[in-house]
Amino acid sequence: MDMNVLPALGTFLDPLALAIVGGGVVAGTVLRNASGDLARGVVALGQLPRRRFDVEPLVAQVSALGRIARRHGVIALDRSKIEDPDIAAAVAAIVDGAGAKDVEILLEQRRCARFERHRGGWEVWSGAAELAPAMGMVGTLIGLVGMFAAMKDPQAIGGAMAVALLATLYGALLANLALLPVATRLKRRARHEAQERLRLQPALATLAGIEPGSGTLKEIAA
User: Fold this and answer.
1) Which residue spans traverse the membrane (predicted)?
2) Does a structural domain hold residue 21?
3) Is 158 part of any domain?
4) Where in the sequence is the domain holding 196, given as residue range(s)?
């Protein structure tokens, strides 16, 4: 293939078209989303390079907590160092005397709340993906208006036509190769974590039903 027949890369660069599409997407995203969701959407980008949520270490930790509770009673769990917020909240409730059903309700509420927070993050990007083609069409209309206004100036027609065509191209590429893939990956991660966290509910509900062990107060304090 003769590479000389291909258009130069600079042919596809137009600052005005970029400004219309990029600026329109940013402005529309800011206007349609709450500040909290915007912040979640930006912070969520940091999750993309990381490994997906793995519940196995948390299941193992709950099993270890169960062994402690059977030996010393659930009151001994109050001294355990727990980093996961869901497990920490469930253990605190168990220590305060919550039953298995109460723990299941608590964990389900926290799981749903976390999923909704994640939803706010990925919907920022999916909404931006919807805006990009529309902003590309806006750029096309602006370019067409510029063409009709410059019909008597052949040199100006070329620049206006470039804006009209490249704005549509930018909108399609931005939506389908950047924004939509980000939204899809964040959504998939959120669903995976919500599904995996379901495995914690029966284990922690069982922990809530453990009767105090026969350990002495001295063993518990040890």
Assistant:
1) 12-31, 124-150, 156-182
2) no
3) yes
4) 29-209
Per-residue pLDDT tens listing for the chain (222 residues): 444 545 667 778 889 999 999 999 999 999 999 999 999 999 999 989 999 999 999 999 999 999 999 998 888 888 888 999 999 999 999 999 889 999 999 999 999 999 999 999 999 999 999 999 999 999 999 999 988 887 777 777 888 888 999 999 999 999 999 999 999 999 999 999 999 999 999 999 999 988 655 443 333 333
> How many Å apart are CA 196 and CA 216, to the nearest integer?
36
User: What are the CB-based long-range contacts (under 8 Å, 24+) for 104-109?
Assistant: 104/201, 104/204, 104/205, 107/197, 107/200, 107/201, 107/204, 108/201
Q: Structure tokens of 164? A: 């009209």
**Number of domains observed in the structure of the chain:** 1
